Amino acid sequence: MKRIALLLLAVLLVLPTAFAKKKKDIDRFPDGTEIPEWFRQTASVDIESLGKKYVLTDYEIFADGRLHTEEIQALIDQAAANGGGVIVIPRGTFLTGGLHFKQGTHLYLEDGATLLGSDFIGDYPLGKTRIEGETCTYFGALINADGLDGFTISGKGTIDGNGLRYHKQFWLRRKWNRQCTNKDEQRPRLVYVSNCKNVQIEGVKLQNSAFWTTHIYNSENVKLLNLSIYSLGKPNHAKGPSTDAIDLDVVKNILVKGCYMSVNDDAIAMKGGKGPWADDPTKTEGNGKNENVIIEDCTYGFCHGCLTLGSESIYNHNIILRRIKVDHATRLLWLKMRPDTPQRYEYVTVENITGNVGQFIFIQPWTQFYDLKDRKDPPMSYSDHITMRNCQMEVDNFFNVRKQDDQYKLSNFHFENLDIKVKKNADFNQSYVDGFTVKNVNVQKQ
Predict the structure, then answer these.
(1) Residue 445, Cα to own-chain centre: how many angstroms?
(2) Secondary structure string (H, E, C) spanning the chain
(3) Cα(138)–Cα(129) distance, rounded to whole angstroms?
(4) Which of 205, 237, 319, 358 is deepest in the core (most CB within 10 A)?
(5) Are 250 and 271 in contact (CB under 8 A)?
(6) Could you give phi then psi for residue 212, rounded to 5 degrees?
C-alpha cells in the first residue's frame, strides 16, 4: 500500500509539469488566445471535386490576341447557372478585361497558361467597391469575387495585369501634378475578393498588376498559399506604383504562407479605413478591424514594407509575421501613424526573421494627403504590445522611431533574442516606449 501511495504521489507531482509543458507548446496569437487548427490545414485545391471543367478552347475561346472578356464572362455565367464548375485557362495567353466570378465557380490556370489583362481602363466596368480605405465608385479588378463562399484560384499558370502602360501614365501625370492620387490615375487591381468566406488562392503567379495586386476586403477564412507575386517589371521599364502584393482590408482569419513577394510598394499592407471619423460607423461606410492574420514561411525580395500597418487602417489585432527570409526590402515592420485618423495597432508579433532590410522597425507620422476635414481635435492613436524576437539580420537602421506624444502613444514593446548588424544607425532609445522590455538584444555597428 505504501508503494502504491508513493507511486500515486509521484504521478500527481509530474502531471502539473507535463500539463504546463503541453499548454506552453500550444501555438497562440499574440494576445494569448489559441490559434485554431484551420491555420494548419494547407491542403491543395482539388479541382476534381469542384464540378465540371469549362476549358476555354472547348468553347472556341482561343489565345489569338483578341479581347475575350464577353466570351469568358458568359462561360462563367453558364457554369454558375449549371450548378458551378471550374473555368480552366489552358496553355497560351488569353486577353481579357474584368471578370466577375459567381457562386460555385472557380478559376484554374494550367502550367503555361496566362490570363492577360487589358491595358485599356474601359474594359473594367465601374461599380461600388472599396479602394484606399474608402467605399466608393471605382473600376473593378481583372478578377473579381464578391459575396462568394468557397471560391478558389489555383494552378501553375499566370495572371498578368499588363500594367506597363498604366505605370507610364501614372508617372507622367505625377510630373505635372504632384498631388495626383492613386485613384486620380485610373487603374484596375489584379484580384479583388470582397464579402467572401472560405477562399483559397494558391500556386499561381500574380504579376505586373496595374494597381494593388491582391485586395481582400470584408472577408474571413482566406488562405493565400505558395503564390509568386511580382511587379517590378523589366529593366528600364516604369516601376509599378502602389502595386502592393497583398492588401488586407477589414478581414478575419487570414493565412499567407509560402509566398514570394517582390513589388514596388508594400508586400503586406493592413488597411481598414482612413479619415478623422474612420471609426464612427454613423459617418463612414465599410470600415472595420483586421484580426487573426498569420504571414509565415514567405520570402521577400524588394518591397517598401514587409509588414505595414496603415496608412488606411484603424484597428489591427493579432497580427503575426514569422519564419521569413528577406532580401533588400526597405522596412521589416512599418507602423504608419496617420495624424488625421484614429488608429490602434495591438498585439503584433514579428519573429524568426533572417536576411537584410533598410529599417528593422520604422514608426513615423504619415501625412500624405492629410485631411482633418471638419474635425477640430486631431485624433490620438496607439501602438501597443508589439513584439520582435528571434531575428538575425543585417540592417541600415535598427530603431527608426519618432516620438510624437501629441499624435500617438507607444506602449508595451518587447524585443528578445535579436542579433542585428547595423550599417548606419544603431541608436535604440527605449524611453520612446512606455513599458519596453529588452532581453538578449545584440545590436552591433558594422
Answers:
(1) 32
(2) CHHHHHHHHHHHHHHHHHHHHHHHHCCECCCCCECCHHHHCCCCCCHHHCCEEEEHHHHCCCCCCCECHHHHHHHHHHHHHCCCEEEEECCEEEEECCEEECCCEEEEECCCEEEEECCCHHHCCEEEEEECCEEEEEECCCEEEECCECCEEEECCEEECCCHHHHHHHHHHHHHCCCCCCCCCCCCCCEEEECCEEEEEECCEEECCCCCCEEEEEEEEEEEECCEEECCCCCCCCCCCCCCCEEEEEEEEEEEECCEEECCCEEEEECCCCCCCCCCCCCCCCCCCEEEEEEECCEECCCCEEEEECCCCCEEEEEEEEEEEEEEEEEEEEEEECCCCCCEEEEEEEEEEEEEEEEEEEEEECCCCCCCCCCCCCCCEEEEEEEEEEEEEEEEEEEEECCCCCCEEEEEEEEEEEEEEEEEECCCCHHHCEEEEEEEEEEEEC
(3) 6
(4) 319
(5) yes
(6) -50, 140
Question: 373 is written with which cell numbers?
Answer: 476635414
| Residues making up the chain, counted from first to last | 446
pLDDT of 21 reads 44
pLDDT tens across 117-127, in order? 999 999 999 99
Cell of 199: 477562399
Provide the β-strand partners of residue 384: 346, 411
Written as one letter, the residue type at 202 is: E
Q: In this predicted model, what pLDDT tens digit does every residue of 74-91 receive, in sequence order? A: 999 999 999 999 999 999
Q: What's the rounded Cα separation, in Å, for the pair 81 and 64?
A: 27
| Cell of residue 82, nine digits | 449549371
- Chain segment 375-420, per-residue pLDDT in tens: 999 999 999 999 999 999 999 999 999 999 999 999 999 999 999 9
